[in-house]
Amino acid sequence: MSKSIICTELVQQAFKMASPHIAQMLKDHANQTDMAVVISATEVINRHNPDKSFKHNCYLVTGFGDQAKWQLDYEAMALSKAEKSVRTGKSSVNIEAHYLREGDTPYWGSVVLDDIVVACSGVESHYDEMFSMWIASTIKALCKQRVSQLPQGQHFI
């Protein structure tokens, strides 16, 4: 089984790049500054190990704010949003009710961008979705950057 160009290191770099902008938007526009973030991918990119939980198959599970003081379990909600998107290949706003399973959150806020899955939870769904897209597009940009920086004459990843 071959590995994807997307890896934990690249995902952490993307999150670090997007985080200051997200933190400022949370402060200036959202209903609070607490938010969970889950980064994964569909099976096309990220082959999940069946011996691990969904959370432990993700590239990154993190958040903003003091998780011990969160009003709700935003991490569990973000994990549920991400899991729905990994399972269906759809952004959660596009997941119809008949796709839902027992234990799924009905909320939306995850995106699937070319099989990159990011889910945010904690603020208004439209902001959860926007921040998810920011992170997903940053991951995609870093992947393209890595390919563009291959040494001359290297014809394979």
If you had to describe this structure to a student in words, what would you say it looks like?
The protein has 157 residues and is an alpha+beta fold. The protein has one domain: Beta-Lactamase, CATH 3.30.450. It is 41% helix and 14% strand. Strands 2-1-4-3 form a four-stranded antiparallel beta sheet. β3 and β4 (116-121) form a beta hairpin. The radius of gyration is 16 Å and the shape is globular. The model has no long low-confidence stretch (mean pLDDT 96).
CATH-scheme architecture: 2-Layer Sandwich
Poorly predicted segments: none
Biggest sheet character: 4 strands, antiparallel
Strand content: 5-15%
Distance between the termini: 14 Å
List the helices and strands and how they pair.
Layout: H1 8-29, E1 35-41, H2 54-57, E2 60-64, H3 74-88, E3 110-113, E4 116-121, H4 125-148
Antiparallel strand pairs: 1-2, 1-4, 3-4
Helix pairs in contact: 1-4
Please give a quick description of this structure.
With 157 residues, this protein is an alpha+beta fold. The chain contains four helices and four strands; from the N terminus they run H-E-H-E-H-E-E-H. Helix 1 runs antiparallel to helix 4.
